[in-house]
Amino acid sequence: MKHLRITVDGKSYDVQVELLGEESTAVQPLIGTPVRAASVAAPAAAPAPTAPVATPSGDGGALLSPLSAVVVSVEVAVGQTVTAGQPVLTLEAMKMNTVVSATQAGTVKSIAVKAGDAVDEGQELLVIA
């Protein structure tokens, strides 16, 4: 058993912690600050992941970056026809890839980035018309 003092929200509590694998299982009462039993809530389920979609700008079909990142790959070319929801490029931030999808069907008119480029949140990536 280990005797510890834990402070939570400015209140100190004296506690004893049983270390697994210890021979002694005797519990000794503590004198001092009372220990309140803490209820532990089950962790909430994580929300289902959604595919990030580039933000459409007010300028026709320009797609804006949803986050600051580095362009990993561009899956479309100028003049290519795309459908709404089709992946158009992949961004990487904090070692996590984010697939950016077209927000509308149309033809790729211009591409403002290439693999390896750093982009800021809200920066124009490409235009679909």
Essential attributes:
mainly beta, OB fold (Dihydrolipoamide Acetyltransferase, E2P), 5-stranded antiparallel sheet, rod-shaped, Biotin_Carboxyl_Carrier/Decarb, Biotin carboxyl carrier protein, biotin, Biotin_BS, Single_hybrid_motif
For the biggest β-sheet, the strand order reads 3-4-11-9-6
Q: Please give the share of residues in helix.
A: under 10%
Main sheet makeup: 5 strands, antiparallel
Task: Determine and state the CATH class of the largest domain.
Answer: Mainly Beta
Order of helices and strands: EEEEEEEEEEE
Described by the principal axes of the CA atoms, the overall outline is rod-shaped
SS content category: mainly beta
Instruction: Let me know the average pLDDT.
Output: 80
At the fold tier of CATH, the topology name of the largest domain is OB fold (Dihydrolipoamide Acetyltransferase, E2P)
- How many domains make up the coordinates? 2
Give unreliable regions as ranges: none
The CATH superfamily of the largest domain appears as RNA polymerase II/Efflux pump adaptor protein, barrel-sandwich hybrid domain
Going by CATH, the architecture of the largest domain would be: Beta Barrel
In DSSP terms, counting alpha (H) and pi (I) runs of 4 or more, how many helices?
Answer: 0
The count of β-strands is 11
What percentage of amino acids are in beta strands?
A: 35-45%
Distance between the termini: 69 Å
Rg, rounded, reads: 27 Å
Protein name: Biotin carboxyl carrier protein
Organism: Haloferula luteola
Keywords: Biotin
Pfam family, one: Biotin_lipoyl
